[in-house]
Amino acid sequence: MASERAAAAGVLRRPRLVIFDFDGVIADSETIALEELAAEMTARGAETSYEQARALFLGMSTARHMAYISEKSGRPCAPDFPDVWHGRLFSRYSTELVAVTGVHRTLNLLDRLGIDYCIASGGSVERIRFALDCLGLASRFEGRAFSAEMVARGKPAPDLFLHAAAARSTSPHECLVVEDAPSGVMAAVAAEMPCAAFLGGSHLDPIRTRHRETLIQAGATACVGDHAELQVMIEAR
């Protein structure tokens, strides 16, 4: 596996901008988010297990969650869904949320190399802001955290990544996207941006090998198991 990663990484040039997905790449938040998403969907008549939520909704926007509830329950999803779900999340974020191991070293490396970075997440502006506060990273991402709420179409459409690149005055081919979700990888491919599949989130522990293949099939340019491998890949360019 290591040799395959090295070979894949060889096709990447050093980027001017690294665009991080948030949940599962910066914040080790996916387990919390998916547990509470499945619970709230089930409470609204769209019975969903944690495993189903993980398979269907990694990287997806709240609009997609609401559409699924409407489809499965046979009635419109009440507009209070985002607030109720976020309330469940925020209650747990306050005491449970941690950063993905090694992310601070990655950010320090990018600062040292003079490489810009930002977040492009399917999560809401409020959710990203609250989580960054919990992690003590709010100041580090001030003005460079972008949400699917800011564009017409969320992932797997390219809109969010193109918006983030334009906001950071960087052309798509000079970016590197770091993603843990198939929808995010597909969005990077559609944006014509190199993409490193990231497998370091704890939510992937039971499915890491299978998920790696899924991300490669979605079009990932490279694959890294954690932030330490991402750092080696970036510094080697």
From TrEMBL:
| Cofactor requirements of the protein | Mg(2+)
UniProt-recorded Gene Ontology molecular function terms: hydrolase activity
Identify the domain of life: Bacteria
InterPro entries, A to Z: Beta-PGM-like (IPR051600), HAD-like_sf (IPR036412), HAD-SF_hydro_IA (IPR006439), HAD_sf (IPR023214), PGP-like_dom2 (IPR023198)
Keyword check for Ribosomal protein: no
The UniProt keywords, alphabetically, are: Hydrolase, Magnesium, Metal-binding
The answer to whether keyword Hydrolase applies is yes
Task: Tell me the Pfam families matching this sequence.
Answer: Hydrolase
> Which family is annotated?
Belongs to the HAD-like hydrolase superfamily. CbbY/CbbZ/Gph/YieH family.
Matches recorded under NCBIfam families: HAD-SF-IA-v3
Q: What is this protein called?
A: HAD-IA family hydrolase
Q: Which organism is it from?
A: Mycoplana rhizolycopersici
